[in-house]
Amino acid sequence: xxxxxxxxxxxEDVKEFVNITNRYEFECDLISGRYAVDAxxxxxxxxxxxxxPLNMVIRGGEAAAEKLYEEVSKFIAK
Length: 78
Hints:
Elements: E1 2-6, H1 11-21, E2 27-32, E3 35-38, H2 42-46, E4 54-59, H3 62-71
Antiparallel strand pairs: 1-4, 2-3, 2-4
């Protein structure tokens, strides 16, 4: 399991992020406060507060999780 903070600022960011996460078989979630949604669900993501960084939890094998981490690196909150 790997955790990181991501920031999705625009509709295009959300679309690209969902397209990336849907390429992987394992589960990953986005957490905002007490709400957690599937990171592969565009509707779920839009139900979160996107003005703040989101916690992303990747539940996959180490190698696959590392590959996903690299693909979403542009969304990592600074």
